[in-house]
Design a protein that fits this description.
Blueprint (H helix, E strand, L loop, with lengths): L1 H15 L9 H4 L19 E3 L5 E7 L4 H4 E3 L5 E3 L1 H7 L5 E18 L2 E16 L2 H8 L8 E3 L5 E15 L4 E17 L3 E7 L4 E12 L21 E12 L5 E15 L5 E5 L6 E3 L5 H6 L4 H15 L2 E5 L2 E4 L3 E10 L5 E10 L7 E11 L5 E10 L2 E13 L2 E7 L3 H4 L6 E11 L7 H4 L4 H7 L2
Antiparallel strand pairs: 1-5, 1-24, 2-5, 2-24, 3-4, 5-6, 6-8, 7-10, 8-9, 9-11, 9-12, 10-11, 11-14, 11-15, 12-13, 13-17, 13-18, 14-16, 18-19, 19-20, 20-21, 21-22, 22-23, 23-24
Amino acid sequence: MKRLYTLFLLLACGYAGAPATAQDHFLFTARDLPQSMLYNPAMRPSRGFVTIPLFGSLTAGFDNSFSYDKVIDKNADGVKYLDTRGLLDATKGKDLTLMRFNLDLVNTGFFVGPKDYMGVSLRARAHMATSMPEGLFGMILDNPINEYKTFDVSMTPNAIGWVELGVSYTRDIDENWRVGGRLKYVNGLMSVQSTGMDVTVRKEYDRYTVTGDYALRGGNVDFSTGGGLFEDLLSNLSSNPGFAFDLGATYRSNDKRLNVAFSVTDLGAVFWNKKNSSVIRTHSEGRTYDFYGVDGLGGLIDGTTSIGHVLDSAYTDLSRTLRADTTAGSFAQMLPTTFQAAADYALGPYMRHHVSAGFVGMIPYHGKLHYAISAGYAYRTLTGTWQLMANYTYKSNNPVNVGLGVVMNTGKFQLYLAMDNIIPAFTLTGARGTNVSLGLNFFTSRSREFRSCDRRASRKAARYYSR
Protein backbone atom coordinates (compact mmCIF):
# COMPACT_ATOMS: atom_id res chain seq x y z
CA MET A 1 0.00 0.00 0.00
CA LYS A 2 2.85 2.33 0.77
CA ARG A 3 4.18 1.86 -2.75
CA LEU A 4 0.83 2.85 -4.26
CA TYR A 5 0.57 5.96 -2.12
CA THR A 6 4.09 6.97 -3.16
CA LEU A 7 3.25 6.49 -6.84
CA PHE A 8 0.06 8.55 -6.54
CA LEU A 9 1.88 11.32 -4.69
CA LEU A 10 4.63 11.56 -7.28
CA LEU A 11 2.22 11.54 -10.21
CA ALA A 12 0.24 14.27 -8.46
CA CYS A 13 3.36 16.43 -8.55
CA GLY A 14 3.07 16.49 -12.29
CA TYR A 15 -0.45 17.95 -12.08
CA ALA A 16 0.03 20.24 -9.12
CA GLY A 17 1.45 23.02 -11.25
CA ALA A 18 -1.62 23.11 -13.43
CA PRO A 19 5.17 23.39 -14.76
CA ALA A 20 8.28 25.67 -15.37
CA THR A 21 7.59 27.53 -18.42
CA ALA A 22 9.61 29.33 -21.00
CA GLN A 23 11.86 31.91 -19.39
CA ASP A 24 10.85 35.51 -18.81
CA HIS A 25 11.28 37.68 -21.94
CA PHE A 26 12.03 40.73 -19.78
CA LEU A 27 15.31 39.18 -18.65
CA PHE A 28 16.59 39.45 -22.23
CA THR A 29 15.45 43.03 -22.88
CA ALA A 30 16.35 44.71 -19.57
CA ARG A 31 19.74 46.44 -19.46
CA ASP A 32 22.34 46.07 -16.72
CA LEU A 33 20.28 43.46 -14.86
CA PRO A 34 22.27 40.74 -13.01
CA GLN A 35 19.38 38.25 -13.27
CA SER A 36 19.72 38.29 -17.07
CA MET A 37 23.12 36.66 -16.67
CA LEU A 38 21.50 33.50 -15.28
CA TYR A 39 19.73 32.90 -18.60
CA ASN A 40 22.49 34.15 -20.86
CA PRO A 41 25.98 34.26 -19.27
CA ALA A 42 27.11 36.79 -21.90
CA MET A 43 24.64 39.38 -20.57
CA ARG A 44 26.76 40.48 -17.65
CA PRO A 45 26.03 43.84 -15.99
CA SER A 46 28.38 46.80 -16.30
CA ARG A 47 29.30 46.64 -12.59
CA GLY A 48 30.12 44.12 -9.93
CA PHE A 49 27.09 43.07 -7.91
CA VAL A 50 25.73 40.93 -5.13
CA THR A 51 22.12 39.80 -4.77
CA ILE A 52 20.53 39.83 -1.34
CA PRO A 53 20.98 36.22 -0.14
CA LEU A 54 18.02 33.79 0.13
CA PHE A 55 15.18 36.12 -0.93
CA GLY A 56 16.85 38.63 -3.27
CA SER A 57 16.26 36.78 -6.53
CA LEU A 58 13.53 34.30 -7.39
CA THR A 59 11.29 33.19 -10.23
CA ALA A 60 8.07 31.23 -9.88
CA GLY A 61 5.48 30.35 -12.47
CA PHE A 62 2.95 27.93 -13.88
CA ASP A 63 1.38 27.24 -17.25
CA ASN A 64 -1.68 25.20 -18.04
CA SER A 65 -3.70 24.48 -21.16
CA PHE A 66 -6.98 25.74 -19.74
CA SER A 67 -8.25 28.11 -17.08
CA TYR A 68 -10.75 27.60 -14.27
CA ASP A 69 -13.39 29.60 -16.15
CA LYS A 70 -13.13 27.27 -19.16
CA VAL A 71 -14.27 24.21 -17.20
CA ILE A 72 -16.42 25.64 -14.39
CA ASP A 73 -19.69 27.33 -15.31
CA LYS A 74 -22.86 28.57 -13.58
CA ASN A 75 -26.46 27.67 -14.25
CA ALA A 76 -29.41 30.07 -14.21
CA ASP A 77 -29.58 29.84 -10.42
CA GLY A 78 -25.92 30.75 -10.01
CA VAL A 79 -24.88 27.25 -8.98
CA LYS A 80 -21.44 26.24 -10.24
CA TYR A 81 -20.99 23.01 -12.18
CA LEU A 82 -18.30 21.24 -14.17
CA ASP A 83 -18.55 21.94 -17.89
CA THR A 84 -17.60 18.49 -19.12
CA ARG A 85 -17.56 19.47 -22.78
CA GLY A 86 -15.31 22.43 -22.04
CA LEU A 87 -12.93 20.19 -20.08
CA LEU A 88 -12.80 17.61 -22.87
CA ASP A 89 -12.10 20.28 -25.50
CA ALA A 90 -9.42 21.90 -23.33
CA THR A 91 -7.50 18.66 -22.78
CA LYS A 92 -7.41 17.42 -26.36
CA GLY A 93 -3.97 16.84 -27.85
CA LYS A 94 -2.19 15.82 -24.62
CA ASP A 95 -1.23 19.41 -23.96
CA LEU A 96 1.08 20.69 -21.27
CA THR A 97 0.82 21.45 -17.59
CA LEU A 98 3.98 23.01 -16.21
CA MET A 99 5.42 24.62 -13.08
CA ARG A 100 8.82 25.98 -12.12
CA PHE A 101 10.57 27.59 -9.17
CA ASN A 102 14.06 29.09 -8.98
CA LEU A 103 15.52 30.57 -5.79
CA ASP A 104 18.99 32.14 -5.80
CA LEU A 105 20.69 31.43 -2.48
CA VAL A 106 23.87 33.24 -3.57
CA ASN A 107 24.44 35.28 -6.72
CA THR A 108 27.38 37.62 -7.26
CA GLY A 109 29.58 38.89 -10.09
CA PHE A 110 32.77 40.92 -10.49
CA PHE A 111 35.38 42.04 -13.02
CA VAL A 112 38.67 40.16 -13.15
CA GLY A 113 40.09 42.27 -15.99
CA PRO A 114 39.11 45.10 -18.34
CA LYS A 115 37.25 42.65 -20.60
CA ASP A 116 36.75 39.71 -18.28
CA TYR A 117 33.89 39.12 -15.85
CA MET A 118 33.11 36.22 -13.52
CA GLY A 119 30.01 35.20 -11.60
CA VAL A 120 29.19 32.70 -8.86
CA SER A 121 25.68 31.43 -8.14
CA LEU A 122 24.11 28.87 -5.82
CA ARG A 123 20.50 28.08 -6.70
CA ALA A 124 17.66 25.80 -5.60
CA ARG A 125 15.40 24.81 -8.48
CA ALA A 126 12.32 22.72 -9.21
CA HIS A 127 10.66 21.74 -12.49
CA MET A 128 7.45 19.73 -12.85
CA ALA A 129 5.77 19.01 -16.16
CA THR A 130 3.59 16.39 -17.80
CA SER A 131 1.36 15.72 -20.74
CA MET A 132 -2.30 15.19 -19.93
CA PRO A 133 -3.97 11.76 -20.10
CA GLU A 134 -6.72 13.14 -22.33
CA GLY A 135 -8.63 9.87 -22.47
CA LEU A 136 -9.02 9.77 -18.69
CA PHE A 137 -11.45 12.69 -18.68
CA GLY A 138 -13.38 11.18 -21.55
CA MET A 139 -13.62 7.84 -19.76
CA ILE A 140 -15.03 9.54 -16.65
CA LEU A 141 -17.15 12.30 -18.19
CA ASP A 142 -18.05 11.23 -21.74
CA ASN A 143 -18.77 7.53 -21.56
CA PRO A 144 -22.33 6.61 -22.64
CA ILE A 145 -23.37 3.20 -21.38
CA ASN A 146 -24.47 2.02 -24.82
CA GLU A 147 -21.21 2.87 -26.63
CA TYR A 148 -17.92 0.97 -26.73
CA LYS A 149 -14.84 3.17 -26.88
CA THR A 150 -11.08 3.08 -26.47
CA PHE A 151 -9.52 5.74 -24.24
CA ASP A 152 -5.87 6.78 -24.36
CA VAL A 153 -4.71 7.53 -20.80
CA SER A 154 -1.02 7.87 -21.61
CA MET A 155 1.13 10.56 -20.02
CA THR A 156 4.78 11.62 -19.76
CA PRO A 157 5.59 12.98 -16.29
CA ASN A 158 8.87 14.77 -15.64
CA ALA A 159 9.44 16.24 -12.18
CA ILE A 160 12.85 17.09 -10.79
CA GLY A 161 14.27 19.17 -7.96
CA TRP A 162 17.95 20.05 -7.67
CA VAL A 163 20.52 22.49 -6.33
CA GLU A 164 23.31 23.83 -8.49
CA LEU A 165 26.58 25.68 -7.96
CA GLY A 166 27.59 27.64 -11.05
CA VAL A 167 30.72 29.56 -12.03
CA SER A 168 30.47 31.78 -15.11
CA TYR A 169 32.99 33.60 -17.25
CA THR A 170 32.22 36.41 -19.72
CA ARG A 171 34.65 37.83 -22.28
CA ASP A 172 34.36 40.95 -24.44
CA ILE A 173 35.70 39.93 -27.86
CA ASP A 174 35.46 43.49 -29.22
CA GLU A 175 33.01 46.38 -29.09
CA ASN A 176 30.40 44.30 -30.92
CA TRP A 177 30.66 40.74 -29.61
CA ARG A 178 30.58 39.26 -26.13
CA VAL A 179 30.52 35.57 -25.20
CA GLY A 180 29.94 33.77 -21.93
CA GLY A 181 29.66 30.35 -20.38
CA ARG A 182 28.71 28.82 -17.06
CA LEU A 183 29.80 25.46 -15.68
CA LYS A 184 27.40 24.04 -13.08
CA TYR A 185 27.84 21.27 -10.57
CA VAL A 186 24.42 19.78 -9.81
CA ASN A 187 23.03 17.69 -6.96
CA GLY A 188 19.66 16.03 -7.47
CA LEU A 189 17.10 16.14 -4.66
CA MET A 190 14.15 14.15 -6.00
CA SER A 191 12.65 13.18 -9.34
CA VAL A 192 9.99 11.11 -11.04
CA GLN A 193 10.37 10.74 -14.77
CA SER A 194 9.16 8.64 -17.67
CA THR A 195 9.82 8.54 -21.39
CA GLY A 196 6.27 7.34 -21.86
CA MET A 197 3.44 5.67 -19.96
CA ASP A 198 1.53 4.27 -22.94
CA VAL A 199 -1.72 2.82 -21.62
CA THR A 200 -5.12 2.46 -23.29
CA VAL A 201 -8.44 1.44 -21.79
CA ARG A 202 -11.06 -0.32 -23.94
CA LYS A 203 -14.65 -0.22 -22.76
CA GLU A 204 -16.48 -3.51 -23.25
CA TYR A 205 -20.02 -4.59 -22.33
CA ASP A 206 -19.19 -5.73 -18.81
CA ARG A 207 -15.58 -4.66 -18.24
CA TYR A 208 -12.71 -2.34 -19.01
CA THR A 209 -9.71 -3.90 -20.76
CA VAL A 210 -6.38 -2.26 -19.94
CA THR A 211 -3.39 -2.71 -22.27
CA GLY A 212 0.01 -1.11 -22.66
CA ASP A 213 3.39 -0.72 -21.01
CA TYR A 214 5.05 1.92 -18.92
CA ALA A 215 8.33 2.72 -17.22
CA LEU A 216 8.58 5.12 -14.33
CA ARG A 217 11.91 6.13 -12.78
CA GLY A 218 12.30 7.63 -9.33
CA GLY A 219 15.39 9.54 -8.32
CA ASN A 220 15.91 9.47 -4.55
CA VAL A 221 12.65 7.50 -4.35
CA ASP A 222 12.19 3.84 -3.46
CA PHE A 223 8.94 2.76 -5.13
CA SER A 224 9.02 -0.63 -3.46
CA THR A 225 8.70 0.74 0.08
CA GLY A 226 7.80 4.40 -0.35
CA GLY A 227 10.90 5.44 1.57
CA GLY A 228 13.34 8.15 0.60
CA LEU A 229 10.69 10.59 -0.56
CA PHE A 230 11.22 13.36 1.98
CA GLU A 231 13.11 12.07 4.97
CA ASP A 232 16.23 11.15 2.98
CA LEU A 233 16.52 14.28 0.83
CA LEU A 234 19.13 15.96 3.00
CA SER A 235 21.01 12.79 3.88
CA ASN A 236 21.33 11.91 0.17
CA LEU A 237 22.14 15.43 -1.00
CA SER A 238 25.60 14.50 -2.26
CA SER A 239 24.64 11.08 -3.64
CA ASN A 240 23.17 12.25 -6.95
CA PRO A 241 25.71 14.45 -8.74
CA GLY A 242 25.42 15.99 -12.16
CA PHE A 243 26.87 18.57 -14.50
CA ALA A 244 25.38 21.20 -16.79
CA PHE A 245 26.44 24.07 -19.04
CA ASP A 246 25.03 27.44 -20.01
CA LEU A 247 26.36 29.11 -23.17
CA GLY A 248 25.54 32.53 -24.57
CA ALA A 249 26.60 35.35 -26.86
CA THR A 250 25.52 38.93 -27.55
CA TYR A 251 26.06 41.26 -30.51
CA ARG A 252 25.81 45.04 -30.57
CA SER A 253 25.85 47.12 -33.74
CA ASN A 254 28.35 49.92 -34.25
CA ASP A 255 25.69 52.59 -33.72
CA LYS A 256 24.71 50.89 -30.41
CA ARG A 257 21.04 50.64 -31.42
CA LEU A 258 20.70 46.97 -32.28
CA ASN A 259 21.32 44.33 -29.59
CA VAL A 260 20.98 40.60 -30.25
CA ALA A 261 21.34 37.80 -27.69
CA PHE A 262 21.10 34.03 -27.96
CA SER A 263 21.85 31.25 -25.49
CA VAL A 264 21.23 27.68 -24.36
CA THR A 265 20.87 26.85 -20.68
CA ASP A 266 20.66 23.73 -18.52
CA LEU A 267 22.41 21.52 -21.03
CA GLY A 268 23.30 18.61 -18.76
CA ALA A 269 22.03 15.79 -16.57
CA VAL A 270 21.71 14.42 -13.04
CA PHE A 271 23.08 10.92 -12.38
CA TRP A 272 20.84 9.25 -9.81
CA ASN A 273 22.50 6.80 -7.47
CA LYS A 274 21.40 3.16 -7.57
CA LYS A 275 21.37 2.91 -3.77
CA ASN A 276 18.49 5.34 -3.36
CA SER A 277 16.70 5.25 -6.73
CA SER A 278 14.26 2.80 -8.31
CA VAL A 279 12.45 1.92 -11.53
CA ILE A 280 9.00 0.46 -12.18
CA ARG A 281 8.88 -1.23 -15.58
CA THR A 282 6.25 -3.49 -17.16
CA HIS A 283 6.81 -6.40 -19.54
CA SER A 284 3.24 -7.10 -20.64
CA GLU A 285 4.08 -8.65 -24.04
CA GLY A 286 0.55 -7.87 -25.17
CA ARG A 287 -1.24 -9.10 -22.02
CA THR A 288 -4.46 -7.35 -21.04
CA TYR A 289 -5.98 -6.64 -17.66
CA ASP A 290 -9.76 -7.00 -17.37
CA PHE A 291 -11.23 -4.64 -14.80
CA TYR A 292 -14.78 -5.54 -13.72
CA GLY A 293 -15.14 -2.84 -11.11
CA VAL A 294 -13.98 -2.21 -7.59
CA ASP A 295 -14.34 -5.17 -5.25
CA GLY A 296 -15.15 -4.83 -1.60
CA LEU A 297 -17.74 -2.03 -1.80
CA GLY A 298 -19.73 -3.76 0.91
CA GLY A 299 -16.69 -3.64 3.16
CA LEU A 300 -16.32 0.09 2.51
CA ILE A 301 -19.93 0.61 3.53
CA ASP A 302 -19.79 -1.39 6.74
CA GLY A 303 -16.26 -0.23 7.62
CA THR A 304 -14.51 -3.63 7.47
CA THR A 305 -12.09 -2.46 4.76
CA SER A 306 -10.51 0.81 3.61
CA ILE A 307 -10.39 2.63 0.30
CA GLY A 308 -6.61 2.21 0.39
CA HIS A 309 -6.93 -1.56 0.58
CA VAL A 310 -9.43 -1.60 -2.30
CA LEU A 311 -7.22 0.55 -4.55
CA ASP A 312 -4.10 -1.36 -3.62
CA SER A 313 -5.79 -4.63 -4.56
CA ALA A 314 -6.70 -3.31 -8.03
CA TYR A 315 -3.21 -1.86 -8.50
CA THR A 316 -1.58 -5.14 -7.46
CA ASP A 317 -3.72 -7.12 -9.92
CA LEU A 318 -2.88 -4.68 -12.72
CA SER A 319 0.85 -4.86 -11.94
CA ARG A 320 0.82 -8.65 -11.90
CA THR A 321 -1.02 -8.86 -15.20
CA LEU A 322 1.27 -6.38 -16.97
CA ARG A 323 4.28 -7.99 -15.24
CA ALA A 324 5.53 -4.86 -13.49
CA ASP A 325 8.93 -5.11 -11.81
CA THR A 326 10.20 -2.65 -9.21
CA THR A 327 13.97 -2.66 -8.98
CA ALA A 328 16.73 -0.47 -7.64
CA GLY A 329 18.60 1.18 -10.46
CA SER A 330 20.77 4.14 -11.35
CA PHE A 331 19.90 6.32 -14.31
CA ALA A 332 20.73 9.65 -15.93
CA GLN A 333 18.07 12.33 -16.25
CA MET A 334 18.46 15.31 -18.55
CA LEU A 335 17.68 18.74 -17.18
CA PRO A 336 14.91 20.73 -18.94
CA THR A 337 17.10 22.40 -21.57
CA THR A 338 16.05 25.86 -22.76
CA PHE A 339 16.97 27.79 -25.93
CA GLN A 340 16.66 31.58 -26.13
CA ALA A 341 17.07 34.26 -28.79
CA ALA A 342 16.14 37.95 -28.55
CA ALA A 343 16.72 41.21 -30.41
CA ASP A 344 16.28 44.81 -29.24
CA TYR A 345 16.34 48.01 -31.31
CA ALA A 346 16.62 51.53 -29.87
CA LEU A 347 14.69 54.47 -31.31
CA GLY A 348 15.15 58.21 -30.89
CA PRO A 349 18.24 60.41 -30.48
CA TYR A 350 18.94 59.23 -26.94
CA MET A 351 17.77 55.64 -27.43
CA ARG A 352 15.09 55.88 -24.76
CA HIS A 353 12.46 53.90 -26.69
CA HIS A 354 13.14 50.24 -27.44
CA VAL A 355 11.23 47.61 -29.39
CA SER A 356 12.12 43.95 -29.04
CA ALA A 357 11.26 40.43 -30.12
CA GLY A 358 12.23 37.10 -28.62
CA PHE A 359 11.88 33.35 -28.83
CA VAL A 360 12.21 30.83 -26.00
CA GLY A 361 11.93 27.07 -26.42
CA MET A 362 11.98 24.45 -23.67
CA ILE A 363 11.93 20.67 -23.56
CA PRO A 364 9.69 20.17 -20.49
CA TYR A 365 9.36 16.39 -20.89
CA HIS A 366 10.34 13.65 -23.33
CA GLY A 367 9.18 14.39 -26.88
CA LYS A 368 7.69 17.84 -26.18
CA LEU A 369 8.75 21.34 -27.27
CA HIS A 370 7.12 24.19 -25.39
CA TYR A 371 7.82 27.59 -26.93
CA ALA A 372 7.00 31.26 -26.46
CA ILE A 373 7.28 34.15 -28.95
CA SER A 374 7.32 37.68 -27.54
CA ALA A 375 7.16 41.25 -28.82
CA GLY A 376 7.83 44.10 -26.43
CA TYR A 377 8.38 47.79 -25.78
CA ALA A 378 10.61 49.43 -23.18
CA TYR A 379 11.10 53.02 -22.08
CA ARG A 380 14.37 53.88 -20.39
CA THR A 381 14.99 57.20 -18.75
CA LEU A 382 18.07 59.11 -19.82
CA THR A 383 19.61 58.91 -16.35
CA GLY A 384 19.07 55.14 -16.17
CA THR A 385 16.94 55.32 -13.02
CA TRP A 386 13.91 53.60 -14.58
CA GLN A 387 13.23 50.94 -17.16
CA LEU A 388 9.52 50.41 -17.84
CA MET A 389 8.68 47.37 -19.96
CA ALA A 390 5.62 45.78 -21.53
CA ASN A 391 5.25 42.83 -23.86
CA TYR A 392 2.88 40.41 -25.52
CA THR A 393 3.74 36.70 -25.54
CA TYR A 394 2.28 33.85 -27.55
CA LYS A 395 2.87 30.46 -25.93
CA SER A 396 2.32 27.09 -27.52
CA ASN A 397 -0.42 26.28 -24.99
CA ASN A 398 -1.66 29.82 -24.26
CA PRO A 399 -2.02 32.47 -27.00
CA VAL A 400 -2.72 35.56 -24.87
CA ASN A 401 -0.17 36.86 -22.34
CA VAL A 402 0.33 40.56 -21.60
CA GLY A 403 3.21 41.30 -19.27
CA LEU A 404 4.64 44.29 -17.37
CA GLY A 405 8.06 44.81 -15.83
CA VAL A 406 10.07 47.51 -14.08
CA VAL A 407 13.73 48.03 -13.18
CA MET A 408 14.66 50.79 -10.72
CA ASN A 409 18.23 51.90 -10.09
CA THR A 410 18.98 54.17 -7.11
CA GLY A 411 22.73 54.49 -6.97
CA LYS A 412 24.07 51.16 -5.75
CA PHE A 413 20.67 49.50 -5.22
CA GLN A 414 18.54 47.92 -7.95
CA LEU A 415 14.99 46.53 -7.85
CA TYR A 416 13.56 44.30 -10.56
CA LEU A 417 9.96 43.09 -10.69
CA ALA A 418 8.13 41.54 -13.65
CA MET A 419 5.09 39.44 -14.48
CA ASP A 420 4.81 37.98 -17.97
CA ASN A 421 1.01 37.69 -17.72
CA ILE A 422 -0.94 40.24 -15.67
CA ILE A 423 -4.33 38.56 -16.20
CA PRO A 424 -4.19 36.76 -12.80
CA ALA A 425 -3.94 40.16 -11.09
CA PHE A 426 -7.43 40.97 -12.39
CA THR A 427 -9.08 37.57 -12.75
CA LEU A 428 -7.28 34.59 -11.27
CA THR A 429 -9.97 32.19 -12.48
CA GLY A 430 -9.43 33.30 -16.08
CA ALA A 431 -5.68 32.76 -16.11
CA ARG A 432 -3.91 29.86 -17.76
CA GLY A 433 -0.60 30.76 -16.21
CA THR A 434 1.87 33.42 -15.23
CA ASN A 435 5.51 33.85 -14.25
CA VAL A 436 6.70 36.30 -11.60
CA SER A 437 10.33 37.39 -11.21
CA LEU A 438 11.93 39.43 -8.42
CA GLY A 439 15.45 40.79 -8.07
CA LEU A 440 17.08 42.85 -5.29
CA ASN A 441 20.68 43.72 -6.14
CA PHE A 442 23.53 45.81 -4.77
CA PHE A 443 26.27 47.05 -7.08
CA THR A 444 29.76 46.81 -5.64
CA SER A 445 31.81 48.71 -8.25
CA ARG A 446 31.58 51.48 -10.81
CA SER A 447 30.32 50.96 -14.33
CA ARG A 448 32.88 50.02 -16.98
CA GLU A 449 32.01 51.29 -20.43
CA PHE A 450 33.42 51.64 -23.91
CA ARG A 451 35.11 54.96 -24.51
CA SER A 452 33.95 55.01 -28.13
CA CYS A 453 30.42 55.42 -26.92
CA ASP A 454 31.36 58.73 -25.22
CA ARG A 455 32.25 60.20 -28.58
CA ARG A 456 28.92 59.26 -30.16
CA ALA A 457 26.38 60.29 -27.56
CA SER A 458 25.91 62.61 -24.69
CA ARG A 459 27.64 61.82 -21.43
CA LYS A 460 24.38 60.79 -19.77
CA ALA A 461 23.38 58.48 -22.58
CA ALA A 462 26.84 56.92 -22.66
CA ARG A 463 26.81 56.30 -18.93
CA TYR A 464 23.56 54.37 -19.18
CA TYR A 465 23.50 52.71 -22.57
CA SER A 466 27.07 51.45 -22.72
CA ARG A 467 27.53 47.86 -21.71
